From TrEMBL:
GO terms for molecular function: hydrolase activity, acting on carbon-nitrogen (but not peptide) bonds. Signal peptide: none annotated. One of its GO terms (biological process) is carbohydrate metabolic process. PROSITE patterns: NODB (PS51677). It comes from Pelotomaculum isophthalicicum JI. The lineage of its organism: Bacteria, Bacillati, Bacillota, Clostridia, Eubacteriales. Pfam families: Polysacc_deac_1, YkoP. Residues 40-228 form the NodB homology domain. This is Polysaccharide deacetylase family protein.
Length: 438
């Protein structure tokens, strides 16, 4: 059990933490990390504030140079210093969400993640009268919950092109100025800090920013560039389809890793088979099925998974959700006699007493002979729901926004078909023999 548990834990870490961060930080999927080139613009952003020691001084410098910046605010400090929030917005600067208490998403569960975002939204909306539309995750880290929340609501996640490293222990005004001006290019988004209270920040870092900022602003002007607000660089920026293609490409890579670690296998030389399979042993309490079959501890069952590569091909050919559902159901129906033949002829899979899967799209499966069962409340059900919802949003032809209606009405369930029910409904006699799985 221990090696299997370690694999499950590793898969959860990959899906919940690693994959979302790789998609965004390295794949640059669904995030903004620079402005469009050719417009001669630079974006200044300030994180972790507001702070009564530093924020007013930074606002004064920006006002003298007549430039607008973007401040990514923590909800706790906004609540503590509401006058500073009003001072920022009154000066015409933009405000974004930077979490409530500056906690890394890697250390937060689904509920805590959403709470960090929504609590900050609520505070900022109360103070400014506007819902925040810009978000920057703390340290640029994501988890599955934060990524799903941003994308499902069409929110704009802003990262950065270059750091000023103003928070580093040995940073000086000169090193900050030199680093920023050396990296200064058309379209860059720069990140500074107007607070030194976040974990890892060197005390007094914003003092060095205040000393360096006038020279940096002069350097921007001397290079023929100008400081632009996020609102300007976001205008007309729509990379949704390209982002989705990249998400699908990278997610296919992650999917292969998950299948390798968890023993989910394709049927060899059968590229039209809608299922991928894993033979498992049951370790729970005795489970009485509706047809009288009994699944006991130690019994084998076949865990069924949709072949996402084949599903993507179907989605690529048809834009209608209804049409895709019809085709997918047809493929499932055609696959069941093959599964019956596999359980009859293959020694390994022949040990299984039933087929079992988990899906949000379980309504049509009843007509095919599957029985649905509720998942027990708990962490597994919560994680499975988030994962299935993300996949539904990813594969939905209309994207994250248009799949919202479907997601809110669905919850994951077990779909089960016993061996005797499979053989009764889909007798394997006369079905062309399926090659044994690799």
């Amino acid at each position: 059990m221990e090696p299997y548990f370690a694999k499950i834990l590793l898969i959860i870490l990959i899906v919940y933490i690693v994959a979302p961060t790789v998609l965004t930080r390295f794949g640059q999927v669904g995030v903004i990390s620079r402005a469009t080139k050719g417009k001669g613009t630079v974006v200044l952003t300030f994180d972790d504030g507001p702070d009564p020691r530093y924020t007013p001084q930074i606002l004064d410098i920006l006002n003298r140079h007549q430039v607008k910046a973007s401040f990514f605010i923590t909800g706790a400090k906004a609540k503590l210093y509401p006058d500073l929030i009003k001072q920022i917005t009154s000066a015409g600067h933009e405000i974004g969400n930077h979490g409530f208490r500056h906690k890394a998403a890697w250390l937060l569960g689904p509920r805590a993640t959403i709470t960090e975002i929504t609590d900050t939204n609520r505070v900022l909306e109360e103070l400014t009268g506007k819902k925040p539309i810009y978000f920057r995750p703390c340290w640029g880290l994501y988890n599955l919950s934060s990524l799903w929340y941003y994308w499902s609501r069409g929110l704009k996640v802003v990262l950065w092109t270059y750091m000023s490293w103003d928070w580093a222990k040995h940073a000086t005004p000169e090193s900050i100025t030199r680093r920023v001006l050396n990296k200064l290019r058309d379209g860059v988004i720069l990140i500074f800090h107007d607070s030194d209270s976040a974990p890892g920040a060197a005390p007094g870092g914003p003092d060095r920013v205040i000393a360096a900022l006038p020279q940096i602003l002069e350097g921007i002007t001397l290079r023929g560039l100008r400081v632009a607000p996020l609102e300007e660089i976001m205008a007309g920026k729509n990379n949704g389809s390209a982002a989705k293609r990249m998400v699908i490409f990278l997610w296919s890579f992650v999917d292969r890793i998950i299948r390798l670690l968890s023993g989910i296998k394709d049927i060899k030389d059968d590229q039209s088979f809608i299922w991928r399979l894993a033979l498992r042993r049951y370790h729970g309490q005795e489970w009485l099925m509706k047809d009288g079959s009994l699944l006991k501890k130690g019994d084998y069952y076949i865990e069924i998974h949709i072949n996402n590569d084949l599903l993507l091909k179907l989605l690529g050919e048809h834009s209608s959700t209804e049409r895709i559902a019809v085709i997918a159901m047809r493929e499932v129906r055609h696959s069941l006699p093959k599964l019956a033949r596999l359980m009859k002829d293959d020694k390994r899979y022949g040990k299984a007493k039933l087929l079992l899967g988990i899906t949000l799209l379980h309504r049509g499966t009843v007509r095919l002979g599957f029985t649905t069962y509720e998942l027990k409340p708990g962490l597994f059900r919560m994680f499975t729901g988030w994962y299935e919802n993300l996949l539904l949003s990813l594969f939905h032809p209309g994207g994250f926004k248009n799949s919202k209606t479907y997601r809110e009405k669905l919850s994951p369930k077990y779909v089960v078909m016993t061996r005797q029910e499979l053989m009764r409904r889909y007798p394997p006699a006369g079905i062309p023999e399926t090659v044994a799985p690799r």
